[in-house]
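Catalogue entry: protein
Contents: sequence, fold tokens
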Amino acid sequence: MAEQQSFISKIYVVASWCFAACGGLMFGYDIGISGGVTSMDDFLEKFFPRVYRRKLVAIEDNYCKYDDQYLQLFTSSLYLAALFASFGASKACTILGRRLTIRVASSLFIIAAVISGIAPNLGVLIFGRILFGIGVGFGNESVPLFLSEVAPVKYRGGVNILFQLLVTVGILIANIINYVVSSVHPYGWRIALGLAGAPALVLFIGSFIIVETPTSLIEREREADGRKALQKIRGVSDVEEEFKQIKDACEAAKQIKHPYKELMKTSSIPMVVISIIIQIFQQFTGINAVMFYAPILFQTVGFRNNASLLSSVITGLINVLSTLVSVVFVDKVGRRKLLLQASVQMFISMVVVGVILILYLKPTGSLNKGLAMGVVVFVCLFVMSFAWSWGPMGWLIPSEIFPVETRTAGFAMAVSTNMLFTFVIAQGFLSMLCVMKAYCFIFFAGWIVVMGLFTLFFIPETKGIPIDAMMDRVWRKHLFWSKFIPMDGDKTVEML
């Protein structure tokens, strides 16, 4: 009987992980759908007629034909909204709990999908994107925290990366839908945007099934419910040691009335710096420039519209499979080794793509078939290495390194930084491509060198460390960051 109960508990826990991770599916679908929709002629003709006319001109500069601030705003407005929403989401996670915040995120996304699918003009379309952004801000704040807090320590990395895995699955599904509906005239783009509500509906239903995290319940003074939730997700009745650890952390957190002020103390410098820097680096790998605009990029080097969308499906599939590598190995080889290996592979891939385009892609005309396929291959190698490293680690590391008293505030800072620099890349890449041409890929390669060196010297290994033991077992022992961490009983000072 006990074994049967344990088995049922395990099934429930895994189902909770998967339902919550659908927040990643929701986010990934939007990333993938944006680039495909903005390459569809029906969409461009309705909302961006100037870009559509330029696209039809055969002698138009390959690098500049999609350069339009309003077209870029269609993609980037979501991330600007998500930036501001992440701070409200942090407060919601603390007051309402992780589960209810997830429900709010999915509800906003469903409403946004309906508005976007029926949008009669550009203003309504952008309003729908802003609602998407608020949903993304709430979802990207609550889901990784939920996954980190419910996962057993030995599986925490792999469970948290379920979020990034579902992001990649969402991108793949979006690429397939883009490919299918591109031939549905003139409403294919409406179908693509409206279907964003499907993963949000799954997440909404899941929010009624998943359990609230024990940490969230205990910090809201629902200790009995917190103990039951911990017993439920661990599948055992004796959870006293972990319950005490969470309770002690929450008691310490209650002493902190202003968590954002706490983040300004010297003892928070290591976590804040790493969380912010890793988000900046994640965007300056160039990944979202590639994933947002993959169909446009492949059209630029000479593929026809359907062929470019199909190439995006291939990169999306590689993205999913490579993220599975991270799920399997992150808790075996650790975070640092995956980041360092990928930095080398991404650097080589970006340089090769940049050199091919610099040497052979002129302002007019296109690459020959062999070189165009070479670009696709190295883009795939780039996506592959990102998917098992900087993609998932950008969400995993910030969600596990903060103490409970600053966890939601610290992670909100990480999410907002990610959204800010995603906005910068989304708003600026097509203009950057027009001005810098293929040298923009060399620009991203330079950033990859910097992030590899930062990882080598400043990012600690967190594999196998309990989430509430990071201060003693990671930060106080780090060669560089330990100087910012006071010994037990010492007082910390605020940063000037």
